[in-house]
Amino acid sequence: MFDFQSSIQVLRTKGYKLTRPRKRVLEVLAQAQKPVSPYDIQKVLQQRGEHLNHVTIYRILDLFCLLNLAHKVLSFGGFVKCTLGEEEGCHRFMVCRQCGALREFADKALCDEENEIAQDFGFRTEQHFSEGFGLCSNCQGQIF
Amino acid sequence: MFDFQSSIQVLRTKGYKLTRPRKRVLEVLAQAQKPVSPYDIQKVLQQRGEHLNHVTIYRILDLFCLLNLAHKVLSFGGFVKCTLGEEEGCHRFMVCRQCGALREFADKALCDEENEIAQDFGFRTEQHFSEGFGLCSNCQGQIF
DNA sequence: GTTGGTGCAAAGGATTTGCAACTTG
DNA sequence: CAAGTTGCAAATCCTTTGCACCAAC
Lengths: 144, 144
What we know:
5 strands; globular; DNA-binding
């Protein structure tokens, strides 16, 4: 989901309550520049004087992923806010292995091609996830 | 890697010892029909009267992934034996959401296309992961 | 015989569960 | 006020580390 308001809309529409913890987690995800773990989120909130139980954060992240308001970044470990509108079943990322910078995109051509390959195996595809791992423009050419 | 023998070759060639635990883990991976966790592997071997320490299994799986003899399936959680030859940097799977059946494939066209999109974002891609989720031929049409 | 590999114990995280208390609509 | 959420305690599971012993080459 692209912005804070539409994320809230999704929650409302699907009958979930708009609670203080959920708002806080949404905010942190929206501001994060890289994938964050449940404990990362807890720490950020701690620094703002807000306390959330880690179990609560886990449950909220589970819900957000279910609703596609957030995604779990598999190669990096951590969660990010979904930055696309409703692109059902297509969640693709570029992840920088150095700084964790992340860019989400959807691409129909890629999905079509994957569907074709899947069919050859007898699979019927419902969801596509992919992650390209490499270096973002900032981290290219840097030597550490 | 495609078969047991060539996996062993890779180990030898790269100067790693061919130990009993490594052979056992290779066997279990080769026979598994779905991604298996380190503890899954330990259980299977237990049933055959073989005991391996779980730490050992973790280390062996790390090594196998390093050598591309196995892959970690991110969305499913677990490891599978690599069924392809050396396809550096391209790890794609179809996973059945019902039974966990898994099919590995590589596809240069997909990688090229992803690279192009990445370039538009200023990213330089080094590795591609993708996991398609859906139903395998066996699970299609079944009602649970 | 070396070197690399394994087993064990233990520590440290990550994640989940059950239930009582609280909030939101 | 009722249903859905949260907080807490604790259990469980996952993963890693350090070091002594052992096995493969």
